[in-house]
Queue: 2 jobs
Job 1
Amino acid sequence: MTAFRLADPALEPIAAKTINGERLSRADGLALYASRDLVGIAQMADHVRRRINGDRVHFMVNRHINPTNICENRCKFCAFSRSKGQEGAYEMTLDEIVAAARESVPEGAHEIHIVGGLHPEWPFEFYVDMVRRLREALPAKVIIQAFTAVEIEYYAKISDLSTLEVLRQLKDAGLDALPGGGAEIFSERTRQAAWEKKTSADDWLRIHGEAHSLGIKTNCTMLYGHIETFEERVDHLIRLREQQDVSGGFLAFIPLAFHPANTELEDLPSTTGYDDLKTLAISRLMLDNIDHIKAFWIMVGLKVAQLSTVFGVDDIDGTVVEERITHMAGATTPEALTKDELVGLIVETGHTPVERDTLYNVIRVYDDMPATGSLGS
Ligand code: V47
Ligand code: SF4
């Protein structure tokens, strides 16, 4: 039996449940957030991570593309979006989107990740054409992971189709998976305060359930570190867990650390490394039915992403290449990493780097790497 060295006796009942593989309750989630025993929480999260993923830590070669930042919603936490005609607004043509995606093929990409604003003039057919043209231009091994549930809901609105029909048509055109964005915090209070036009919790979860029913796998996220409470974070995790019980198609959970610069919430502080690591570990403990917990290094930074591999995380995302959403909100991380840098980062922690595609099919296991002492060496 695994023994944890806990400094906080309040964690003992949670440790017993963790060892027995029992589901944690809302009260357990709140007790984890109330505890200052970060090392105790890390040990429990690491135990669960090892049970699900062994000593593997995943990464991928991918390319992010944001076709436009023109957006009808203008959420208060978003520094990326612009109104049509505003300085800094941009739109890519289909040719430019396809060319950007093709550039990543010689680099060995296995995923094109597309998220953008809700453009007031582009018709739904534009997005179907985008996916069809990408599918024709890319080798079958490159997975197209595109459009958050927020975008899917918007396409339904502009086309007068149901969200299920929108998903069906995008799937027929070649869409493989949905990214996990747009979930934010599933609390009506926070939605009304900072993203009132955006998809409600019920609709976000319904759209992911519909995608799962069509065989489209999806990710899920939580935007934390702004105006939400710990109770709202725990409730968010529980709603994701309940949805996964029903529809089963979430591949990975990614907590997204709020970046305040250039947003309407810019007076708020950035998240701390302590909160980032604790939130990743608590996510691993609460989400017993989602296999992968991902630290998006762009948002938490390379140092926290590397450390997170002993806080329950088994995935540090990918090479990314171009990132606008977080960088426009003040991120100081690089926009891209090489495959060697990602492998070096993981090897140093003693874990085995595993290159994967979006669906967690294994591309290569790096089990023959010499131990390194610094990033990329
Ligand atoms: O939906 C917007 C968030 C999301 C800010 O599925 C912000 O693998 C922090 O969903 N500070 C888009 N976050 C990114 C996203 C994503 C990223 C990486 C991997 C995956 C995946 C998905 O970014 C948005 C919103 O929730 N966001 N503004 C900000 N200032
Ligand atoms: Fe638009 Fe998404 Fe930014 Fe909200 S977060 S303003 S929906 S691009």
Job 2
Amino acid sequence: MNKAKFITFEGVDGAGKSTHLAWFAETLRQRGLEVLVTREPGGTALGELLREILLRQPMHAETEAMLMFAARLEHIEQVIKPALQRGTWVVSDRFSDASFAYQGGGRGVQLSKLEQLERWVHADLQPDVTLLFDIPVEVARQRLSNNATLDRFEQEQGSFFEKVRQAYLDRYKKTPLRFALIDARQTPEQVKVDLTKIVALL
Ligand code: TYD
């Protein structure tokens, strides 16, 4: 474990990634590492303001994509890169794969446009490892239905999430070595066993 790593958690809403993220970060800390936990959209003061807008206010799909990447640029420059440079590991609840999945797959924004934004905003940075929590959409939806308040994305139909899931899997197929694919249908205990194995490989 030499260079500080940038690790991202991804998956459709209801896959359970946020629950596991805190445990994962704690496991890294127990290994003596400095770990910063952050999230997207968000992670900076401006990013959190943009998050409020993005989760509530209806807008054109391409506006949504650009705001996601605008928040991301702030996040990278203010938080992610400085942390990595001082040797702190960064664990982010979502990053650009979410834009490809939600704005690309879910909303139908052209892949080439998202790739342009990705090159613009972080040509020189990719996560070292992305944990993709994959789960059948109907199972994820069932878990979400226990939540009292659903945001603008969570209120979407099942067909939207089918496209999101597929777009995530397409990202995985493109650069499989960056990803650890996690079967999120498993019990939390089984998922922790998988996460422990992943930590051992870092
Ligand atoms: P999330 O943090 O998973 O929400 P919660 O607080 O309910 O766990 O993510 C917020 C939403 O933002 C999620 O529905 C996915 C969406 N999103 C995008 O559409 N594009 C993006 O690039 C990112 C980072 C998130």
